[in-house]
Amino acid sequence: MHFFVSWQNEIMKTILLVAWALILAGSFLPLVHIPLVGNWNYWQIDHVLALVCWVFCLFSLAGIVSGKILLVRFSAVFLILHFTFSIFAIRYQAYRFFDFIPVVSWQKEVSEMVQLSWGWLLEYTGAVALLLLRKK
Q: Whole-structure pTM over 0.90, yes or no?
């Protein structure tokens, strides 16, 4: 019976590490597509947002390795909030960047050319997996 419990814990720890790797990899993948400029990852969007993401990735890794599930969940919740804030900040900044356009409808149309990319899917998937999975 002890072997089964230890085996199950190792599988959960591995799944948590894969979820952590998804978050870390997602920060290096395209998160925003800007026409004529290309794809940007977290570091190209904003250095501070990238550092905050990586710091809480380190907290979650420390929680996974040490078996502190509360630290993992706290980090996951904060990462989900951080990703949501980042998306709203990107949208707001794109809208504010085109303030010089006198017609508001044109300003909105041009700002909507800045599109979110597929990297966010990995970011959210990893964070939600960290939040929902638990070691028994």
A: no
